[in-house]
Amino acid sequence: MIIGIIAAEEKEMLAIKNTMTNIEIETIYELIFIKGVIENRNCVLVECGVGKVNASRTAQIMIDKYNVDYVINVGVAGGTNEELKIEDIVIGEKLVQYDFDITTVGNYEKGEIARTGKYFETDKKLVKLCMQAISEIKNREFNVKIGTIATADYFCSNPQKAFEVKKEFNAECVEMEGAAIAQVCYLDKIPFLIIRGISDTPNGNNEVDFHTYIEIVSKRVGYILKSLIAKI
Fold first, then answer.
1. Hey, where are the domains in the chain?
2. What distance in Å separates the CA atoms of residue 225 and residue 5, rounded to the nearest whole number?
3. What is the CATH number of domain 2-231?
4. Is 200 a residue of the active site?
């Protein structure tokens, strides 16, 4: 069994890399794949870069090259739900590309992709195991939400835009890679899971909050991931 792990930025994957043993490095098309062991499971970790094209390209290369059994995408996101605070966790139950729009050329809904649908559902087993891993954390000081994660090639710093995405897709958070990775995994029939830590909220200080909290939130997500991998 091989577990593929994708993060957009180095800061989002550093805590995960630090838990790996027996590390080997391989570069493919300028992507640096880190092979190693986490909790006695063979894993492959890679930084994909920001945005949907980078994410989907990396996911397909990982699947083709390493024949992974699972893909887990980790990182940070901006909260859209007023109940969520910075450092809380969102487990993606389903993913949607909120900037995808072909409504003017057919009977489609906003976010719906021809022949694949509007939402990509994550693997129920992985969601369950992830929630078990979180439930075992003692003295937990953060909240967890299972719900929709919305993806676009857009850093959402506009509170009004975040409100619109929440209203239209009932999304708990917004980010820039998850649904693209979900689409690739769906087409390739690979079970996947998207985990996001909230690094910013639509309060007008998104960019400042993002850079302030990305490392803190990424360490929390890395800790959860390590516990999850032990259960797979």
1. 2-231
2. 9
3. 3.40.50.1580
4. yes
How many CA atoms within 13 Å lie on the side-chain side of 172? Answer: 26
Pick the catalytic residue from 10, 12, 109, 172. 12
Tell me the pLDDT tens digit for each residue of 123-157.
999 999 999 999 988 878 888 999 999 999 988 77
Average pLDDT for 103-132? 94
Please state the separation of Cα 35 from the chain's center in Å: 20
Q: Are 159 and 202 in contact (CB under 8 A)?
A: yes
C-alpha torsion 209→212→216→222, nearest 10: 80
126: which residues sit within 8 A by CB, 6+ positions away?
70, 72, 191, 192, 193, 228, 232
206 near 131, Cβ under 8 Å? no
d(CA 17, CA 36): 9
Q: What is the largest CA-CA distance in the chain?
A: 52
Catalytic residue of the set 88, 172, 200, 209: 200
Question: 83 near 145, Cβ under 8 Å?
Answer: yes
- What mean pLDDT, rounded, does the chain reach? 91
Q: What is the DSSP letter of 117?
A: B
How far, in Å, CA of 74 to CA of 154, rounded?
18
Q: What is the tens place of the pLDDT at every residue in 7-61?
A: 988 888 888 999 999 999 999 999 999 999 999 999 999 999 999 999 999 999 9
The CA dihedral of 166, 172, 176, 182, to the nearest 10 degrees, is -110
Task: Output the pLDDT for position 208.
Answer: 46
Residue 197 above 70 pLDDT? yes
